[in-house]
Write a structure and sequence with these properties.
single chain; four-stranded parallel sheet; 17 strands; about 300 residues; 10 helices
């Protein structure tokens, strides 16, 4: 049995609407009940979280990510690029916390700390594109712009509502994107209003993928084709109201569980990757690694 004795908390000071540092002494004190060493480091910039994780991944038994999915993305990249294998814990104090919700972790501070004290773990599949590791999602199309146009200031003030206000501005821009997708030997080319690769039960705070198994070596691919405006829009609404399962019989939707995906982005459209904006013309993604993560 492994003796876990040291914890490093990597926290985003903007988490909890800028109040996370007020709670840090209490969090450290509670974790010290079980772990001999408990330290905390602030990362004012998301990229800084990766640098901290890279430097300290091999020096601590447990890295606790205190923030949202963007901070988690950077910590995972820092850890996996070193080859170290610490346990990853989450204090889900960001805006959506999709991975934390998938793991059953609560937003309540004390209950989230309780999970780290219990140290109940699972293996979590992580994707890789040849350059970066992807914790759980890659998406483009209708309304995905709202995930990266919502400013830190608005998220700090309004929380998840910041995404709603940003989405309102996108409501009447129902564009379609020319994309070629190759998945497990099959090739699809066309115009799509929505594209998503997901290894999580949640995306953008919505419970879309209730049956997801984050440890089966596959990720879920969802494509909503451009047909007529009503059919495409109705499929999109069903997705976010009733989840991926409600789309399985839709003629304008492709849903597949895949190990590998290749994407050609012919319009150079922006994507969101773990909630952050990226751009690329071509990308190959495969389930590449597993991380030991704390669950409820």
């Amino acid at each position: 049995m492994i003796n876990y004795s040291s914890v490093l908390i990597i926290y985003n000071p903007n988490a909890m609407r800028g109040r996370v540092e007020d709670y840090m002494p209490r969090i450290k004190q509670r974790l010290s009940l079980r772990y001999a060493t408990v330290e905390a480091m602030s990362s004012p910039e998301i990229d800084g979280a990766e640098a901290i994780a890279t430097r300290y991944a091999s020096k601590y038994d447990i890295l606790v990510v205190c923030g949202g999915d963007g901070t988690l993305h950077r910590v995972i990249n820092g850890v996996l690029k070193t080859g170290a294998n610490p346990v990853i814990g989450l204090l889900p104090f960001g805006t959506c916390n999709d991975v934390a919700h998938t793991l059953g972790l609560p937003h309540d501070i004390d209950k989230a700390v309780d999970a780290i004290l219990r140290l109940n773990t699972t293996e979590y599949d992580i994707m890789y594109d040849g350059n970066e590791y992807i914790a759980y999602s890659l998406a483009t199309g209708y309304l995905t712009k709202s995930t990266y146009t919502a400013t830190n200031k608005s998220k700090k003030r309004f929380g998840r509502l910041a995404y709603f206000f940003s989405a309102i501005k996108c409501l009447f821009k129902f564009d379609s994107l020319p994309i070629t997708v190759v998945y497990d030997g099959e090739r699809v080319h066309g115009k799509f209003v929505y594209f998503m690769i997901l290894n999580s039960q949640y995306a953008g705070g919505f419970h879309l993928n209730k049956e997801d198994d984050v440890n089966n070596g596959k990720v879920r691919l969802v494509l909503i084709k451009k047909t007529n405006a009503f059919a495409s829009f109705f499929a999109f609404v069903k997705l976010f109201m009733f989840g991926i399962k409600s789309l399985l019989k839709s003629k304008c939707v492709i849903v597949k569980d895949v190990k590998r995906v290749e994407i050609e982005n012919h319009a150079n459209a922006p994507f969101t990757q773990d909630g952050e904006k990226i751009k690329f013309l071509k990308k190959q993604i495969a389930v590449k690694a597993k991380l030991t993560m704390i669950k409820k």
